[in-house]
Amino acid sequence: MTGLILKDLMYLRRTAKVLLLLLAFYFVLFAVAGDDSASGIFSSVTVLLTMLLSVNAFAYDEAAKWSVYERSLPVAKSGVVLARYSLGVGVATCLTLISFLAELVVLRGISPDNLAALWASWSIALLFCAILFPLMYKYGTQKARMALMIVVLLPTLGLILLQKANLPLPSVSTVLLLIRFLPLAAVAVVLISFQVSCRIFRNKED
Question: Domain-by-domain residue ranges, the chain?
Fold first, then answer.
């Protein structure tokens, strides 16, 4: 399994220049804004880049016909899936830490609200990975991307419908409570997603 993780890290090294340029751009944008309201910049980057890198890792494997070689490896199918989940969790965690350090440098500290935003972005990135990975294993990158777009748009559609129906939006205290428990929920969903992906991958390969 270590070799599979190293393979994914080699993929990340191929995209390192683009990744560093994107992070530098957003850091400059964040530094120019220089206030608490700009903290959402890095929070959104964590989610977007985690999804982008994870999808591209699957796409590279498909383009290289990696699954043909993968079947011959002396690695348990659960180990193959675990290596890919390790990539998603590792990328989300590293990007969250980078965001945390950026806010410490630019804002000379971090407020509880900004810290909650970072926790929320890390959790949302994991939730999207938990939704995305089983779809990737089941349908491949092209169909899974379309399904992910629908999943991403659903919360926005839900908020629009709430506003149209004149239903009360959640209070600030309710939102903060949800954010507090969101990391635990994200970890639980990832564990369930891992089991689902293992079952899909096992059935696909048998």
Answer: 1-203
